Amino acid sequence: MARAIREFEDWTEGESLADWGVEPVLTSACARALRAASRRAGGRLSVTLEQTFESLLDWSGRRNPAGRPTLTAQRVMQAPGRKVDLVIWNGNHTPRAVVEIKRADGLAGLRADAVRIMDFVDVAGAAYDGTIRRGFLAFVVQHPSDRSEEARLRRTEHRLVGLTEVGCRRKFTVTRHGVREVRAPGLRDYCCVETVVVEFSRPRVKAFVTP
What angle do CA 170, 31, 167 make, to 5 degrees? Predict the structure, then answer.
């Protein structure tokens, strides 16, 4: 994501990727980085883009239990055409994780994305004998040039705390994978851009615990 932001700034001579709404630039950059990291480590990880919920539910091998679906399952089943930005597959071509990538940093929107991610991890995960184990929300935070370093830290932390609260209420393990500052001197009206990744994973349990 950091590389994509710097490249876009260079292509446009100073424009902000987040302002221009070209989220696929971020998505493709993440796919390249994940695949390259797997190869360097000698792994066989692969990545697909814009995968539909419907196809993933099928390929996850989830067990469809008898009886009325939970509210979580209903939310996922009622949006079969919805897509996941990235899916990470293991060497056996089994889906293991989903990734949502956002250029905007509004907390309300990020919370909604986090809920969708957790819904999918629950419905296609271990509780239903599915293979999905974790979900990631990766996003960009832009800070106007008049913000102090303290104000920037508060703004980013506010988003991280909000996402952690949502995950904890759902009994997910929430892990922050750092806040990476991206220095792109040509960016107009911005002094700092940050990339953030939050991971949502479910502890190993046999019983389905989400209402």
Answer: 10
